[in-house]
Give the backbone structure.
Amino acid sequence: MKAGVWFAAGAAAGVYGMVRARRLAEALTPDGMRDRVGAAFLGARLFGEEVARGQAEAEIHLRQRFDGADAGPPQLTNPTTTSSREGTR
């Protein structure tokens, strides 16, 4: 009975080691490295989108809090034109 338990534990450890070694070998191949780099770029892009979405939500919240009425995106306004001929006298 004791020998069977040790045999099963050894077999399980061997299978676990083989699976881990195969995964490591696959990760170090050019295709595996390409997949890892692609996943890193995808993660960075998703993080950037989440940050932009959070900034937009925070801006809307702040506009609601401080402006009260205007809760949309910022609007461009026409600047008032003033003559700046003071320096040409």
User: Anything to note?
Assistant: The chain is about 70% helix and 0% strand. The two ends are 108 Å apart (CA to CA). The first helix runs from residue 2 to 27.
